[in-house]
Amino acid sequence: MNGSGGFTQTIDWLAFTLPKAEVADVIALIGGDWFQSETGFRGYPVAQLMTEGKTGVGKLGTGAPRNPKEVHVDLSAGIVSQWDETKLKTVLAWIFAQKGHVTRIDVALDDREASVAVETVRLAVEAGQLVSRSKQFKVIQASNHREGTRTGETLYFGSRESQSMLRVYDKRLELQAKGREDAALYGVRWELEFKQNRAQACAKALLTLDPEDWRAFLVGVLRSYVDFRETTREAESYEKYRAPLVSWWKALTEGFMRCRLVVERIQQRLDDVAAWLANAISPMLAVVVACRGDQFLFEMIYAGTKRWTQKHYALLKQRKRGTPYVLRVS
User: Fold this and answer.
1) How many CA atoms lie within 13 A of 121 on its CB side?
2) Has residue 240 got a pLDDT over 80?
3) How much is the pLDDT for 284?
4) CA Rg, the chain, in Å?
5) How much is the pLDDT for 102?
6) How far apart are CA 297 and CA 289, in angstroms?
7) Spatial separation of the C-alpha atoms in residues 8 and 189, rounded to whole Å
8) What whole-number distance in Å separates Cα of residue 60 and Cα of residue 238?
9) Whole-angstrom Cα distance, residue 46 to residue 68?
């Protein structure tokens, strides 16, 4: 779905804990190709991993001595941002039906046309126009040390230890630095990170509210966390809250009130898949081949071609000319 006037929203992270669940059911719900991890995850001795493209990482942990049937899942932006609204709500409804708890959810509000620069926000804070209950504000600058150039800055409102935090940064610059071909489609991102009880409340609102009320809820949460008004740092508290909104903030939040949930289309690259294969799988693959021989490898690859989906066929278009389409067992 397209946003209105260059404003969109995406779900950028989802983590949840289920008090009792079958791992197979969780994997079937989420989808993707999962494999056993050599190490545990977040204190869970048994873990499985799943990757999607270059940035999508899913982690599942279970088998904790205190509750062996408990399952915890972390899903990064590269996975959940590609879910449409139906898939997202299906997953959330299932979590709550299992009496699960959403422990983290990140919602990204994108100003795709960068109508408000990150620098504008920082200067407003420095001028004392920020009205917020949070006292913590931090700026982290990024640069290319080889070229001696700045590649952007991220503004942090709040603490990582709290249940809410806001990040503001130039998503376009970040993706350009990563070589993403679609970087020009992005602008400035306002990313709300919710954890624990606030994550649970946000997830329930996403599941139960209609789109218009959900957008109003999001903007209300954003403005309750940070507000920018025509005031100064020296003004009394009551004067700050009564001061009119600065013009750019009023326009930005009105834009976010019209934004709609979008599905990110992140195209996997063959080089990324090859790098992941070399780093994550090759050691254990070498052990299996050493024990069972090359023939097992050929049979496994051939069997894998029978499970190709659309994403695998898309990667095949990137292969070098002359590369076999299907590896046949000798």
Assistant:
1) 27
2) yes
3) 72
4) 23
5) 98
6) 7
7) 10
8) 48
9) 10
The sign one gets for the Cα dihedral 206, 111, 233, 160 is positive
Per mean pLDDT, which range of 23-27, 272-276, 299-303 is the poorest?
272-276
Q: What is the DSSP letter of 103?
A: E
Residue in this structure with the two tokens 């600065």, named with its chain if needed: 246
| Residue 293 CB neighbour total at 10 angstroms | 10
Q: Which of 75, 314, 296 is nearest to 203 (CA)?
A: 75
Mean pLDDT of the chain: 87
Give exposure, 89-101, as e/b (b: 16+ Cβ within 10 Å).
eebbebbbebebb
Overall average pLDDT of the 304-313 stretch: 71
pLDDT of residue 3 exceeding 50, the answer is no
Distances in whole angstroms, Cα of residue 115 to Cα of each of 120, 155, 227: 10, 17, 17
H/E segment holding residue 283: helix 282-292
pLDDT score at 142: 80
Question: 46 is written with which tokens?
Answer: 């048994």
Q: How far apart are CA 67 and CA 49, in angstroms?
A: 21
- The per-residue DSSP string of 243-271 comes to SPBPHHHHHHHHHHTT-EE--------HH
Query: Is residue 236 classed as helix, strand or coil in its secondary structure?
Result: coil
DSSP H/E element including 15: strand 7-18
Q: Which long-range contacts (CB under 8 A, 24 or more apart) does 172-176 make?
A: 172/114
Burial of 215 (0-12, 13-18, 19+ CB in 10 A): buried
The mean pLDDT value for 8-30 works out to 96
The residue extents of the domains of the chain are 7-261, 270-316
Q: What are 42's two structure tokens?
A: 């977040």
Does the CA dihedral 46-52-53-57 come out positive or negative?
Answer: negative
- SS3 state of residue 62: strand
Q: By the 8 A CB rule, do 233 and 274 touch? A: no
